[in-house]
Amino acid sequence: MLLEADGNAPDSNAPETAYVPPPPPPSHRNEIILYVALAVGVIYAIASLYLMQDTRTRLAAMEKKQLTLEVAQVELGDRIHETSSQFKEALSSEVGTTKQELDRRAAELDRQQKAAAARLAAAQSQQGKQIAAVSGEVSGVKTDVGTAKTDIQKTQTDLAATNAKLERTIGDLGIQSGLIAHTASELEALKRKGDRNYYDFTLVKGARTPVSTISLQLKKVDPKKSKFTLNVMADDRTIEKKDRTIGEPLQFYTGRDRMLYEVVVFTAAKNTITGYLATPKTAPTPVLP
After folding, report:
1. 156 assigned to some structural domain
2. d(C-alpha 263, C-alpha 275), whole Å
3. Which of 179, 216, 264, 279 has CB 3.0 to 4.6 Å from 166, enough for a Cys bridge?
4. What is the number of structural domains in the chain?
């Protein structure tokens, strides 16, 4: 014989009454989640702007280095021209220098000039590649910022759509329940809201399964009619929930403070059911081994 919700034996002469706790206050979690999402977007945008500014600084430094190389090229040309002039003067002043020696020195000077021009061209090419790479990074940052804005907007849209599907209903004890999830994705939305503790489960017929601080046991399931029977083991007693339907909040009190727990099943197969247990935020948490 089951005890009443307060744990005392029922008085056969007293009229039956049911304790109906006041409904939980309305939640403003949606607004908080929205503000958090917006804050994350703002932080990401600020970080991206900082990276863009740093990239522009690096680009300016490289452009300054390229200008220095161009100045060095002009100076090298002046030195080559001066060397050529000195060489010509030396040719006219040196008596007895053979034509073969003059050709050799002229070839060496031409080789040096070509080698210097090749080194300068290579340096300019490398500088151009670095500038192009930095410009690509700037474009990538701009693309990332646009993608982040799109992702934030999509997350807000998905959250609003999921919240619109959540609903409240009356449990089997006649008490207004919290928001009810009918799918695994809606359960994840409830977990993100953080109004209560949620423990999802899959029960196999006949097996006793610990869930949070209680245990559940599936006794019977009829997938065609979406009905099932299960036992709730809590506080050294067993509560039978017989011929219940999918999506119906199964309510019971447990613990020294008589906290209201809810079990919701949203799928039923041949020998299994899946759903979740919802407990108050202040309820005891399971002790991990």
Report:
1. yes
2. 7
3. 179
4. 2
